Amino acid sequence: MYNEILKDRIEAGLLLSEKLKKYQNSNTIIIAVPRGGVPVGYVIAKNLHLPLDIVLSKKIGHPNNKEFAIGAVSSDSMILDEHSNIPKKYIDDEIIRLRKLMKEKYELYVGNRKPQDIKGKNIILVDDGIATGNTLLASIAMLRKKKPAKIIVATPVIPYDTVPVFKKNTDEFVYLMAPKYFSGVSGFYEEFNQVEDKEVIQLLRLPISTE
């Protein structure tokens, strides 16, 4: 367990690489969550000589407060909390809108490159920190449909109470810190700058040796 504040996403990636060393040069793909997960995932991919890809999911906000998540959606999966008072039409419209946004975002990041084929492979799903975990759970549900051998989730920080949820929903869960008092992911980094689209695009285009 790593108990100090992390310097930045690069250090987070280096420390997670150490915990994931057994996957070096194996039948494994790193799948990062944009935007913040991409710098962490890039460092892991580079250190372990593994290919890097991305997965997109979005939270579904409450109609009266968009910041309050009532669920999450990926390109072909959805997780919804039990909020029976929210009109079905609102949820359906949000899913259509968010999926359109995700499709545009994916094309912006990787162009017309096809996603990696993950069937029968280990995938390491990487983010720069987990708060509620809803959007990541939607991504896990989507990736499961593609029949990978194993789903490993790797993150620098997660609230203590959320750890059992991820242990239950993954084949392996790797993390550095699980504090009982959790005020937000940014509180566990010295530098937690906004990752811009431009940086994501650059990192995804950098060559990674898989030898």
From TrEMBL:
One of its GO terms (molecular function) is glycosyltransferase activity. Residues 11-157 form the Phosphoribosyltransferase domain. SUPFAM superfamilies: PRTase-like. The keyword Repressor does not apply. Gene3D superfamilies: 3.40.50.2020, PRTase-like. Keywords: Glycosyltransferase, Transferase. CDD domains: PRTases_typeI. InterPro entries: PRTase-like, PRTase_dom. Coiled coil: none annotated. The keyword Ubl conjugation does not apply. This is Phosphoribosyltransferase. It comes from Flavobacterium ranwuense.
